[in-house]
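Lab channel / #folding
Pinned by the channel admin:
"Please post every new chain as: sequence first, then the C-alpha cells as a reply. Keep commentary short and put observations after the output so the thread stays searchable."

First post following the new format, from NK:
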Amino acid sequence: MAFSKQHKNVMLKSYEKWLSQSQAVFVLEYSKMSMKDVDALRSKVRDAGGQLHVVKNTLMSIALDKANFEHKTIAGTSLMAFAVNDVPAVAKVFLEVTKNSEVYKLKGGYMDGREVSADNIKSLAELPPLPVMRAKLLGLLQAPAGKLVRTINEPARSLAYVFKAYSQPAEAVPTAG
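Reply from TO:
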C-alpha cells in the first residue's frame, strides 16, 4: 500500500515521538500473524509498561538516524516494542512470545542510543521485576544503618543490664555439695 508524502511525515513524527519517550526499543520479526495475534501481543506489552507498533523499516531507519541511534539497516517484517516504564518487563514479554515459536523471532533492539543483540534482551528479561529490585536495593541501603544503630545502642543496653542487676536483691546461688 502506497502512502502519501504527508502521511509518511506524520508516521515519521510518531516514530520520533515513540523513540524519545522510550528507555529501550525491541524489534521482533513476525510471519503469518493475524490481527488478533497482534492485538493480544499489544495488550501484553501495554500491561508491561510499553507500546507495540508495526513499523515501516525505511521510515524507522530515518527516525533512528534523527534520534542519533547507532543502527544497522532494518529488514523484514518488524514489530517494535517501545519500553516506556519497565524495560525488563517488556523484554520478558518478547522472550515469552519467541520461546518455541515459529511465528516470532527476536531481532534485537536499541538502548541508550546503541544497538543491543537478542542475547542482551534475553539477559534483560531474566532480571527480577522493578519492585523486587527496588526492595533489594532498599534492603542493601538499610542494612548498614541498622547495624550502626545496634552498635551504638549496645553499650547503653549492657549498662542498663548492670544497673538492673545491682538494683535487684541478690538471689541465693545454689552450691554443689
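NK: The mean pLDDT is 82.
TO: also worth noting, Residues 128-167 form one domain.
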